[in-house]
Write a structure and sequence with these properties.
globular; 304 residues; 14-stranded mixed sheet
């Protein structure tokens, strides 16, 4: 496969897997470490109330994808209409577009102009889940781009709240049989990494008794002033996968705080991938077109 295509295919798969404050925002976010402890219900309500949800949004991104010792810089243009459509154009080399994709709540269009990999796909969004092995949806992709939490169920009984410096921390609760696998009570988890010895036959036996969704442990760091997500960590113990999203920098707009910078990291069975990007420009409230022209030299594929 062409070397560039390896980067781009891996990039697109990783950017869609679901699995702050170094900039100069409209007003400065304080870093007061003495925030008052709040119940999970209060934090969940404030997170939802302070989500970044513009009706229309366009972004220019400067980004980099890394896999091991290899890396590839690229630029991307993103256009969104809330709850309706996401349009992305990726240009790795000298501003020449190589990939374009259009996502709606129930469909996916993907166009590749990569040498030796010129094709297009048009089908259901479920193809993303089948391709990546993750339960993807339009809402997940939209929330990642907007810096909103995903997988954060509106059920305070499923989370425990703590404080950590200027952030609140929401930790998903888990049952005793999960604790036996993890080796830690959720009350003692907080920022600690989760390490499971899969070579221990006793651990393997315990994992076999659990359902796939029973042992995905979620943690969310929430800024104590803005109630915006600054970091999310998901540990999928069964599939030996850790996915982390950091928003080190937030900037204020008329629609609220949006992520000026994002870092996504995936660790899976000793392999690591990373995508990081800076929002170079953003436009809020301006309607956009979402073109998807298919040239005659592109073949159609039934799968990605």
């Amino acid at each position: 496969m062409h070397r560039l295509s390896v980067y781009i295919v891996a990039l697109v798969e990783f950017m869609l897997l679901p699995f702050v404050l170094s900039c100069r925002p409209g007003r400065e976010i304080s870093a007061d470490a003495s925030i008052k402890k709040r119940p999970a219900r209060f934090i969940l309500d404030e997170c939802h109330r302070n989500e970044f949800v513009p009706d229309w949004c366009g972004m220019k991104l400067d980004a980099e994808f890394s896999a091991g010792q290899e890396s590839q810089s690229f630029k991307a243009t993103v256009r969104m209409r809330r709850d309706s459509i996401i349009w992305v154009s990726i240009a790795p080399l000298m501003g020449i577009e190589m990939i374009r994709l259009v996502v709606t709540p129930d469909s996916l269009k993907y166009l590749s102009k990569i040498p030796d990999q010129k094709f297009y796909y048009s089908g259901g969004i479920s193809e993303l889940s089948e391709k990546t092995g993750a339960d993807l949806s339009f809402d997940v992709i939209q929330n990642i781009l907007c810096g909103n939490a995903f997988g954060l169920e509106d059920d305070d009984m499923k989370f425990r709240s703590e404080t950590e410096a200027e952030n609140y921390l929401l930790i998903s609760k888990y049952k005793r049989k999960v604790r036996k696998v993890v080796g830690k009570d959720d009350r003692k988890l907080e920022s600690d990494s989760i390490n499971v010895d899969f070579n221990d036959p006793r651990v393997s036996k315990k994992i076999m008794r659990l359902s796939d969704d029973a042992i995905v442990i979620s943690r969310y760091w929430v800024n104590g002033e803005t109630y915006r997500i600054t970091k999310s960590v998901f540990d999928d113990i069964i599939h030996r996968r850790n996915f982390q999203i950091d928003y080190p920098s937030l900037e204020h707009s008329e629609k609220g705080w949006y992520p000026k910078q994002c870092i996504m990291k995936l660790n899976h069975e000793g392999k690591s991938l990373e995508v990081k990007y800076d929002v170079d420009r953003i436009s809020i409230g301006k309607p956009y077109d979402f073109p998807f022209e298919i040239s005659e030299d592109l073949i159609r594929r039934d799968t990605l």
